[in-house]
Amino acid sequence: MGRHLKSQKAHDHSLIALFNSTPSSSSSSSSSSSLSSSSSSWYAESIRLSSNPVQTGSKVSHEAEQAEVTENDSIQCMGFMNDIGGGSIMEWKDVENRCNRNMDGKITETDIKQTILLTASTNKLSLTHEEVEDYTALIMKSVDIKNNGYIEISQMESLMKATLSSKTLLSPTKQVSAALGKNNVHNNEFCEVVEEEPMSKAEVMFRNYWRRCWIVLLWVVACIGLFTWKFVQYKNRSGFEVMGYCLPTAKGAAETLKLNMALILLPVCRNTITWLRNHRSIGYLIPFNDSINFHKVIAGGIVVGVILHGGTHLACDFPRISESDRSIFRQTIAADFGYHQPTYVEILLTPEVGSGIVMVVLMGIAFSLASKWPRRGSPVLPVSLRRVTGYDTFWYSHHLFVLVYALLIFHSVFLFLTKNWLEKSTWMYIIFPVLLYTGERIFRAVRSGSYEVDILKASLYSGKVLHLKMQKPEGFNYRSGMYIFLQCPQLSPFQWHPFSLTSGPQDDYLSVHIRTLGDWSYHIYSLFQEAVLSGLQECPKLYIDGPYGSAAQDHVKYDILVLVGLGIGATPFISILKDVAKGAQIAQRDNSGLRECSLTKGPSKAYLYWITRDQNSFDWFRDAMKEISNSAEKQSVVEMHNFLTSVYPEGDVRSALLSVIQSLHHAKNGIDIVSRTPIHTHFARPNWFNIFSRLARKHGGAKIGVFYCGPSNLARELMKLCTKFSTTTTTRFSFHKENY
């Protein structure tokens, strides 16, 4: 916990000493911009907020009747703050001169309250009336040593300097990480860290991608081999005289389609993948984290195969058959058509061609609705199309493949120019994957039927986030980083949606956080909103299926963890942090730190960087953050950092007062004023280069796993930094991305 203020008689020098001993803050970004709104509109908004009635859980900036500053004074003050928007903290004296109502160089409580009000609204922060009063009193007690009822502007400037002079790259959470490893049973000081030379870019690329490369290379070689085999086979048959190279091309593509229609089912056999993932020797060779990506790659191979197979048949083979010389037709392929040369239309009406066309249409519908924009109901699409898109449409349309596989078997029975049963090998390719996938679906249906869960607690947060705390079924075991599927029969008995578990493996309950990003999540939120209002007397019935492994489950492979989450993307990492903190507690209790370290079981340190643009987002995981912070306080194995991007960077005049209040309040109470947890909140975006530099210096020679969940634009930046610092330092960074 931050050091408490022990005396109110200390002045500038004691303040500097105090702040140098408290957790430091982030200098996340040096850039800032002026407010887009006008001064008058800003003031009107602050009055609107202050005049709203106080409701349970609601935030207001201040009550209007207690603001003794005139509107013109406020507009003048705010206009000046906008003018010097990116200015340094040294210009704060000018700001206070403008905001000082009496223009006498003395800042009263009323002046401070009004400035807090203006600063909070400028940075899109919400404060209660009590918080404004407390922060004002905190500043007055810290500076007004003689109880004059006012403070000098010079004193305020000294307070600013004392606070901001202690700002460094990142602030350890509470004193959870102040020692950065002192008395830490998992710390690297107990382990021998082998210093290695920096890796070349080629080595980094090979280390990161060799699993993907050999799998994809094997798949490509298999497709090329099958295509070549059938191409050569049909090039030497009599039909080649009629259709030329179109025939072997179509048949070669057909053979790759058989393989790909079998392989595409394997990456979605979730139970099998989760079971295989737990076998380290198999998991070392096969990149299970990329199963969905491989599923998409195979789908691309199917599209290419369909174009080659169907296109050459329709545009080349069939016209040549119907228009070929009769004598050549009789000498070559007449027996395959009952010695009747068909017209183009007659060929299209045959069972094999008709079934093939229907398959292509069904696959086209399923593939189109599985693409990114239709699946997520993108606003880029026309309104008429948005009504028939979304996850529900994607889910139901994918079940068209039940018909596709049935037609595929039917299609293979009437193969064009193939009479030998052994050559009708489609069933040989697909029988095992189809049986495996069918068995998985049956197993999931039976298991989920026994996993009806009782709702212990349901909480609704801003941003339409639903937190569900559920009873843990007997025998339900999982590891941190796993996820489950939820089904609500009241909405649909067929829809299952994945959510990361935010409870720890040692907890006696299961918890998930659901944000309304689609139609199903919107409806489930609405159902529980009604249930919460009724006192949870009639909760919707829920079934769960799982658990299933994910990329985050690989955190046990690394010495150090770096967990980066944007917004709701922090959910996969809450369970991991709980697990790491709990493991450290158990290790210390059993006095087994040296043993655990020598066996390299689990990470010795975990860093969380949570970035959000809305202050209310901190409500989502407030209880979990407090729990993790308290449990990890003595072990110093968890270091958490919150970043609020709506606030101007530290050092910007528009957030200067917030920095002062934040440091004073954390030093006295150990609670951050923004997140209202022990975790320090940094302003603006993180400086990732500085963060990676610090990690590389602190953990030289260590293997650091960087796990990210969020939009892909930041993923590219983090991946580049992992490569850069792995090639220029002795620290090994490995990047993992959760599907978002």
From TrEMBL:
<dbReference type="InterPro" id="IPR013121">
    <property type="entry name" value="Fe_red_NAD-bd_6"/>
</dbReference>
<keyword id="KW-0285">Flavoprotein</keyword>
<dbReference type="InterPro" id="IPR039261">
    <property type="entry name" value="FNR_nucleotide-bd"/>
</dbReference>
<feature type="transmembrane region" description="Helical">
    <location>
        <begin position="394"/>
        <end position="414"/>
    </location>
</feature>
<dbReference type="InterPro" id="IPR013112">
    <property type="entry name" value="FAD-bd_8"/>
</dbReference>
<dbReference type="Pfam" id="PF08030">
    <property type="entry name" value="NAD_binding_6"/>
</dbReference>
<keyword id="KW-1133">Transmembrane helix</keyword>
<keyword id="KW-0274">FAD</keyword>
<dbReference type="InterPro" id="IPR050369">
    <property type="entry name" value="RBOH/FRE"/>
</dbReference>
<feature type="transmembrane region" description="Helical">
    <location>
        <begin position="426"/>
        <end position="443"/>
    </location>
</feature>
<feature type="domain" description="FAD-binding FR-type">
    <location>
        <begin position="448"/>
        <end position="554"/>
    </location>
</feature>
<feature type="transmembrane region" description="Helical">
    <location>
        <begin position="209"/>
        <end position="229"/>
    </location>
</feature>
<keyword id="KW-0560">Oxidoreductase</keyword>
<dbReference type="InterPro" id="IPR011992">
    <property type="entry name" value="EF-hand-dom_pair"/>
</dbReference>
<protein>
    <recommendedName>
        <fullName>FAD-binding FR-type domain-containing protein</fullName>
    </recommendedName>
</protein>
<dbReference type="GO" id="GO:0016174">
    <property type="term" value="F:NAD(P)H oxidase H2O2-forming activity"/>
</dbReference>
<keyword id="KW-0472">Membrane</keyword>
<comment type="subunit">
    <text>Monomer and homodimer.</text>
</comment>
<dbReference type="InterPro" id="IPR013130">
    <property type="entry name" value="Fe3_Rdtase_TM_dom"/>
</dbReference>
<dbReference type="GO" id="GO:0005886">
    <property type="term" value="C:plasma membrane"/>
</dbReference>
<dbReference type="InterPro" id="IPR000778">
    <property type="entry name" value="Cyt_b245_heavy_chain"/>
</dbReference>
<dbReference type="InterPro" id="IPR017938">
    <property type="entry name" value="Riboflavin_synthase-like_b-brl"/>
</dbReference>
<keyword id="KW-0521">NADP</keyword>
<feature type="transmembrane region" description="Helical">
    <location>
        <begin position="353"/>
        <end position="373"/>
    </location>
</feature>
<keyword id="KW-0812">Transmembrane</keyword>
<dbReference type="InterPro" id="IPR017927">
    <property type="entry name" value="FAD-bd_FR_type"/>
</dbReference>
<dbReference type="Pfam" id="PF01794">
    <property type="entry name" value="Ferric_reduct"/>
</dbReference>
<dbReference type="Pfam" id="PF08022">
    <property type="entry name" value="FAD_binding_8"/>
</dbReference>
